């Protein structure tokens, strides 16, 4: 019979126990478990995730452990055959508190969710960053996310034209 | 150094309405390329969208002032969007009609079906039914006082 908990080793050499239910919410760990059926149960190495971030991931998994499994939806065009962005509303109050953290932490969790392939958590972090971008000017986006302005004046003129500039300088 | 890896921006942008993709285009090469990739991979007719359907963001005064100074003058789509979200100050900024716009802008956008001339009556009628009800009830209260 499969053990009820799984050991994982984080990037800072901490060994952490995960319940099998939480481990299976990560497609990456799930695949590793399937590949190692019958083998000695050694701790699964997670070289890209620190113990601090993994604990956050486990917190999220604990809150969402009874959620229905995410279904891969095929993006359909609406009746007018127009593109519609994914819904960025975060409706769960617990999730709203969860994303109320420093950007550095948010990005670390996003990277961990991407590496561990925890779809719901990955989407939550993407939604939060998307909401952060709304209403910000390019300068504000650069400042918030530590981005360097490497666009040339020609690049910017081309973008102005693409977005419909009707001024004489474009 | 950017704290988000390049390849994740497209995922983040997929949660943004198309109008909100404008500012990232003017941020860096990576973000601009991610926006263009998203538009060209998800839209059925991207060229048509770039030519006729693009819309600029109206979340607040700051972003509108940015694109008014750096990108272009407003179209009817943006004014109606501001009116729908009841941002009167923003409508004031964009204009209650299109007579203040440059002749060049009007000539370029008016012939397109999506961007006809606009006037204050159009803008007021675009406001949501709830907003109109709110204003109706406010005026009723005012009458009974």
TrEMBL record, chain A:
Q: In which pathway does it act?
A: Protein modification; protein ubiquitination
Name it.
S-phase kinase-associated protein 1
Identify the keywords attached in UniProt to this record, alphabetized: Hydroxylation, Kinase, Transferase, Ubl conjugation pathway
Start and end residues of each SKP1 component POZ domain = 5-66
* Origin superkingdom: Eukaryota
The protein's matches in Pfam families, at most eight in alphabetical order, are given as:
Skp1 (PF01466), Skp1_POZ (PF03931)
Answer yes or no on keyword Cell cycle: no
Q: Which residues form the SKP1 component dimerisation domain?
A: 119-161
Chain segments annotated as coiled-coil in the UniProt record: none
User: One of this protein's GO BP terms?
Assistant: ubiquitin-dependent protein catabolic process
**A Gene Ontology MF term for this entry?**
cullin family protein binding
Please name the InterPro entries in this protein's record: SKP1 (IPR016897), SKP1-like (IPR001232), SKP1-like_dim_sf (IPR036296), SKP1/BTB/POZ_sf (IPR011333), Skp1_comp_dimer (IPR016072), Skp1_comp_POZ (IPR016073)
Similarity comment: family membership: Belongs to the SKP1 family.
Please give the subunit comment from the record: Multiprotein complex (SCF) with cullin and F-box-containing protein. Capable of undergoing aggregation.
Organism field? Planoprotostelium fungivorum
Instruction: Return the GO cellular component terms, semicolon-separated.
Output: cytoplasmic SCF ubiquitin ligase complex
SUPFAM superfamilies tied to this protein: POZ domain, Skp1 dimerisation domain-like
UniProtKB/TrEMBL annotation, chain B:
**The protein, known as:** F-box domain-containing protein
Lineage, top-rank taxon, reads: Eukaryota
What does UniProt give as the signal peptide span?
none
Where do the F-box domain residues begin and end? 3-37
């Amino acid at each position: 019979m499969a053990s009820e908990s799984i050991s994982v080793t984080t990037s800072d050499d901490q060994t952490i126990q995960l319940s099998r239910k939480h481990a299976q919410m990560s497609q990456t760990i799930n695949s590793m478990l399937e590949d190692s059926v019958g083998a000695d149960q050694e701790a699964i190495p997670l070289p890209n995730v620190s113990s601090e971030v993994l604990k956050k991931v486990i917190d999220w998994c604990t809150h969402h452990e009874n959620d229905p499994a995410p279904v891969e939806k095929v993006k359909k065009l609406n009746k007018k055959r127009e593109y519609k962005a994914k819904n960025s509303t975060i409706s769960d109050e617990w999730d709203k508190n969860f994303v109320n953290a420093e950007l550095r932490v948010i990005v670390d969790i996003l990277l961990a969710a991407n590496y561990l392939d925890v779809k719901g958590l990955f989407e939550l972090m993407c939604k939060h960053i998307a909401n952060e971008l709304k209403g910000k000017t390019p300068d504000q986006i650069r400042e918030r996310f530590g981005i360097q302005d490497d666009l040339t004046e020609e690049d910017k003129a081309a973008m102005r034209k693409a977005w419909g500039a009707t001024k004489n300088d474009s | 150094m950017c704290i988000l890896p390049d390849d994740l921006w497209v995922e983040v942008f997929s949660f943004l309405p198309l109008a909100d993709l404008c500012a990232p285009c003017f941020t860096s090469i990576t973000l601009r390329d991610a926006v263009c990739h998203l538009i060209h991979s998800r839209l059925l007719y991207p060229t048509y969208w770039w030519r006729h359907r693009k819309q600029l963001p109206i979340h607040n005064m700051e972003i509108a002032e940015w694109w008014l100074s750096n990108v272009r003058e407003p179209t009817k789509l943006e004014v109606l969007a501001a009116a729908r979200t009841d941002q009167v100050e923003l409508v004031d900024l964009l204009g209650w009609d299109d007579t203040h716009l440059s002749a060049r802008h009007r000539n370029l956008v008016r012939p397109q079906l999506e961007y006809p001339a606009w006037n204050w009556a159009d803008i007021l009628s675009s406001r949501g039914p709830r907003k109109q009800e709110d204003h109706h009830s406010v005026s009723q209260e005012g009458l009974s006082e």
